[in-house]
Amino acid sequence: MNIVSTQLGNSLYNCVRSNLRWPLWTRSHFTYYPTRMGTGKRMNMFNAINNAMDLALDENKSALLFGEDVGFGGVFRCSVNLRDKYGSQRVFNTPLCEQGIAGFAIGVANTGATAIAEIQFADYIFPSFDQIVNEAAKYRYRSGGLFDCGSLTFRVPCGAVGHGALYHSQSPEAYFAHTPGLRVVVPRGPIKAKGLILACIRDPNPCIVFEPKTLYRAAVEEVPAEYYTSQLGKADILRHGKDVTLIGWGTQVHVLLEVAEIAKSTLNIDCEVIDLVSILPWDAITICTSAKKTGRVIIAHEAPLTQGFGSELASYIQEKCFLHLEAPVKRVAGWDTPFPHVFEPFYMPDKHRCLSAINDIVNF
Amino acid sequence: MSFLRKSVHLLGSVARRQRHLKVIEGAISTAARDFSSKPSEDYANFPGAKAPFVSKLNLIQPEDYAPIPIYRVMDQDGYIADETQDPQLGREVVEKMFRDMVLLNTMDKILYESQRQGRISFYMTNFGEEASHIGSAAALEMRDLIYGQYREAGVLVWRGFRIDQFIDQCYGNTDDLGRGKQMPVHYGSRELNFVTISSPLSTQMPQAVGAAYAMKLRPNNDACVVCYFGEGAASEGDAHAAFNFAATLGCPAILFCRNNGFAISTPSHEQYKGDGIAGRGPMGYGITTIRVDGTDVFAVYNAMKAAREYVLKENKPVVFEALAYRVGHHSTSDDSTAYRPAEEIEIWNSVEHPISKLKRYMVHKGWFDETVENEYVKDIRKKVLKQIAVSEKKLKPNWREMFEGVYAEMPDHLIEQRSELEKHIEAHKEHYPLKDFEK
Question: In chain B, N or C terminus with fewer CB closer than 10 Å?
Answer without folding.
Answer: N
